[in-house]
Prior knowledge:
62% of the residues lie in helices and 1% in strands. It is mainly alpha-helical. The protein has a two-stranded antiparallel sheet with strand order 1-2.
Amino acid sequence: MTTPSTTPGPDEPAPLRPGRKLGPIADNVGSAHRYWLDPTRARYLATGRTLSDLSFRVHLAKSKLSELLRGVGHYPRWEVIHSLAGELGIPGWPLYRLWRQAALDAGKTSDWVDRSSSNAVITDPPGPPLAHGALRAIVIDDYRRYAGAFLPDDARDAAVEDTFAILWLSFDDALASPDTRRYAWEILRATVKARADHRDHRPLLAKAAFETVALHRQTTLEGEMAQLAESLELFAAISRLPDAQLDVIVLRRLCGFSAAKVSDLLGIPLAAVRSDERHAIRFLEDTIELPDTGGTTP
């Protein structure tokens, strides 16, 4: 992601703006809307430009621009977002994907989306930064395995594609973070959790119950029903784990990845993976009797 010349360096504070400070994002803004709104606001705040300046350039009243950047009022048309992205140096392709999905989630029809974007052609190159593309090629299948434990196939694929779109929009921040892999994984986790079914504010793993090795080993209806009940109990317990332990257990016990692969995928030390797995298993053993799911590699 190319940083515009008006963006301060990493150790340089953004210039002070005259006028009223931009308010926070409204509480009722949904997760899909935030996927593109958060990086757009971050880019605006980093440039040091004023709402008055941008208002003149994107042909939108300052009050309306402030509402747009806070997620207040009507969902914005792509023509406006496209113009704003051009002024702030935000790549159009990932922004459009996230804007479109949020529009549909907000109840807008496909016809409205098409009309809203008919006069705003994306002209920037469709390819992401090389490092982004390299990371995607390495981890995309593993990301799909993880997301598939929580989501049906269509939602799984959409969550993974949204993850890479969000990562593209914030790739400068990813590169500046202590570990790009960890930065990307946290986006994936948040995106998957936002789409998953929940109970008591925790993501459910019900889909994985139908795909365990133990379940497929059963040859009778009674055996299948008994194993399904055990699996559902297990996955309900797993869903109560802290995020780090949940990730490790899903990757180790449901996806079958080695501890070393999990370490590399999450961008955390191997010792942290083993510690999280030990604590998670101890909790699960205290909660239920763990079934045999076929084992994992070391």
